[in-house]
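Researcher: Quick one. two chains, 880 residues in total.
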Amino acid sequence: MNKYHGRSTTVLRPRNTKEVSEIVKHCNERRIGIVPQGGNTGLVGGSVPIKDELVISLGNMTNIRSFDDASGILVADAGCILQSLSDYLAPHDHIVPLDLGAKGSCQIGGNVSTNAGGLRLLRYGSLHGSVLGLEVVLPDGTILDQLTTLRKDNTGYDLKQLFIGAEGTLGIVTGVSILAASAPQASNNVMLALPTFDNVLPLYREVKRQLSEILSAFEFIDRRAYDLAVKHGQGRALNESDVEGAECFVLVETSGSKREHDEEKLNTLLENLMEAEPSLINTGVLASSPAQFASLWAIREGLTESMSKEGKAYKYDISVPLHKFKEVIDTTRDHLQSKGLMRDDAVKHVVGYGHVGDGNLHLNVVADAYTPEIESALEPFVYELVAKYKGSISAEHGIGVMKTHALPYSKNAVSIEVMKRIKHLFDPNGIMNPGKVLEL
Amino acid sequence: MNKYHGRSTTVLRPRNTKEVSEIVKHCNERRIGIVPQGGNTGLVGGSVPIKDELVISLGNMTNIRSFDDASGILVADAGCILQSLSDYLAPHDHIVPLDLGAKGSCQIGGNVSTNAGGLRLLRYGSLHGSVLGLEVVLPDGTILDQLTTLRKDNTGYDLKQLFIGAEGTLGIVTGVSILAASAPQASNNVMLALPTFDNVLPLYREVKRQLSEILSAFEFIDRRAYDLAVKHGQGRALNESDVEGAECFVLVETSGSKREHDEEKLNTLLENLMEAEPSLINTGVLASSPAQFASLWAIREGLTESMSKEGKAYKYDISVPLHKFKEVIDTTRDHLQSKGLMRDDAVKHVVGYGHVGDGNLHLNVVADAYTPEIESALEPFVYELVAKYKGSISAEHGIGVMKTHALPYSKNAVSIEVMKRIKHLFDPNGIMNPGKVLEL
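Model:
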C-alpha cells in the first residue's frame, strides 16, 4: 500500500459522470488510491479507506434520468438514495425490486456494487437479473456506457455483471438502469410456531405449493431468537401458552394484486396446516389488520436490536443448505460449550434467523463482551463449518476489507486466481478500492 | 484463421468434465480451434465451425446431478436436453424457468451459453438471475468449478455471469446449477383485437396493473402477421367480423396457483376493457377450454411457419423501445417501397410480432427469394434504425458468426474493446469458438 500517496481524509463529491472520470484519470496517472463511497452503510468495511485513499462520494449525483411506466425501467444516478427511488416510483404504481433496512441512507450505486440482497429477493430475484444496464467509470477514467434500457440484449459479453458485487474494485458505478416491479395491491402475513425444526422444510415446500406467485417472504426465527425479541418488547404476536414447546417460528408474507384472493389463499393454507394429522405447526397467527401485520414483522425486524440489548453480537451472514440451518447453530453452540465459553460472562446466546427462501442464515453469537478468546473460538471454526457444507461465508454482506482473508473458504483457488486476473485487467495500478475483496 | 490446424469434420463426444478438460488442454497446446456444440439449434451459426475447428459435442453428458425440491435448485450436466429437464421436474411440481420452441433438442449448456430468452422470460426473468452456478472448462483446460447450489453468495466477482451469453468463446460450460420455479397450477389466455397500435402500451399498463403476478405472456402480433397465420391455417380464434378494422392483436397469458382466482381476474379484465369508453380493444376471446387455449397460442406459434409458406423470410430479432415497434415495421416497409422492392416478385410482406413485455420485436421481411438487392436494401438499414433507437440488434438470438460485423450497432467502442480484452485474458491463443461474437 505504500505506493499510494493520496491525500488522506480527502473526500471529493463530483456532480456528474464526467467529473468522476476526470478525478479517476488524475488519480490513476499519479497512482492515488480511491475508495468509492455510496451511503456508507455496508457492514464489511467496503467503503472505508484502509490508509490514505481519496474518497469519492457519489452523494451529489442524485438525478433520476428517466422512468418508463409501461416497461417499468428506471434509470438513475448512482447516488440516488434507495428510499428516494421508492418514493419516486410509488405514484407510478411501481417499486424498486430491492428493500433493505438501510434504505433511508444507502444509495442505488452502492446497492449494485455490493449486490445487496434484502427482503424482496425471494420474490424479485437478485440484482444480476433486475439490473439492465450500468454506467461505470473504469480505473483509467474511461467511461463504460452500458446504460441500456433494454430488457433483452444478447450482443456480446454482459460486462455490467462484473461490476455487480465487485464492491467498487473494478470501477465506479455512476448510473444504473433497473427494472422496477409493479406495486403489489395487497400484503399480508402469518406467524407460525413449529414443534420442531425438522418441519421447516416440509412447511416451506407446502407454503410454496399453495401460495406460489404471491409468496414474498419466508423467514425463519429460532426459539432463542424469538424469546429475545419478545423479552425486549419487539412486536407482540402469539400467546405464551400457544407457543409452549415450539422449537422455532416462521414468518410468511404474501404480496399480490387482489386482497380477497390472497387472504383466501392464506386462510386456506392455515386451515389446511392446522387440520393436518400430524400437523407441521403448533399454531399460527394471521394478521387481521395493518397494525398486526406490522407487529408480526416487528418481531423479525427487531431481532438485531434485541441482540444488541443483550450484549455484543458476533454476526455471521452465511448461506448453507436449508436443512443444515439448525445443525450450524447447534454445532456452533456445542463447540463454544466444549471450549467452556457458554457462560454468563462469556457467550450468552447462540441464535439463528434468516431468509429460508434464500438459504441465508444470520448466525448470531451474543457475548458479554468482544474478547480474543471468543473470536479465536469462532474463527475459523464457523468458516470451516460453512465450507464443509459448501456454503457461502457472505451471503449478502460482501467481502469488503473484513473478510478478504476468509474468501478461500467459499471460493476455490482457480476462482480466486481468475478474479485476480480480472482485477489486474481492469486496474493494473491497483488504485481502485485497494485491499477490498482481494487481499493486497 | 490459418494458424489453426485442427482435423476438420471431427466431432468428439466426451462423457464427463474431465474428458472435456483433457481435450481442451490438448487443443490449446497445439493451437487447435474448438467449437463447443449443444443441440445445434442456434440461429446465428454460433455452434458451427468456420473452417477446420474440432467440434466438441456435449451430447453425451446428460446426467442430472442433483435436485432439491425444497429450494428448487437443479444441477445438471450441460448436455441435458431442455425437454428432458422439464420432464424430470414435472413430478416434483417444478418447471425450468425457460421455455423455447427448440426445447426438444436444445441443451441446457447451450441455453446458458447463448443466454436464451424465450417464452417465460417475462415471468421468470433472464438466466443471469436464475442460473446460480456453472462449471466451465476454460480455454487452457482448467476446470472452473463455480457449481454452487446457493441462492445468495456475495464472495468476490460473479465470474459465472461472463459465460452466460458468451456463446462458448470464453470456455465450455459443462455443468449448470439453476433455480427451478414452482409449477403453475393453472394457465389461461385471451386474444385481444386492437383498433390501433397506439393502444398497445396503455393496454400493457392496464394488464400489468390488473393481472400483476399472474401475467406470464403479453405477445404482440401485427395485422399482416395475423392474417398470414389465419391464411395458412394456424390456430382459429376470432370471428372475421369482430376483427374488422383491427390494426393489431395481443395475446395475454396468465399462470397462477388457483384457477378460479385467475379466471376471475382475467374475466374482470376483459369486462373492464370492453366496457371502457373509449375502449382500448375491439374485441377479445377468452379461452374456455384447453383446446381453445392451445388454439390461441397456435396463432402466435404458427407465425414462423406461415412466413416460410409465403416465401423466404429475412428475420430480425431486435429490441427497441415498446412505443417504436410499429414505427420500425412501417419505416422498413416504406424504405423498401422507396427502393421499388415492395412488389410480388420481390418483397411480399413486412410484418412484426414479438414479446412486448420484453421489448423484443421479431421483424420479418418475407420475399419471393433471397436476393442481394433486397439484402443490401435491408442491411445496414435495419441495424441503423435499431441503433437510432438505442436498441439491440440481437435481443435473444446472439451474435454467433452471422452478426459479428453488426456488433458496433449495439455496443459502443469502449464496450467492444473491453470484450476483446476479456476474450484475450481467457483465451490468449484464440482457440475457443474462434470468429464468434468478436470478429477474427
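Confidence is low (pLDDT under 50) at residues 1-7 of chain A.
Researcher: Thanks, that's what I needed.
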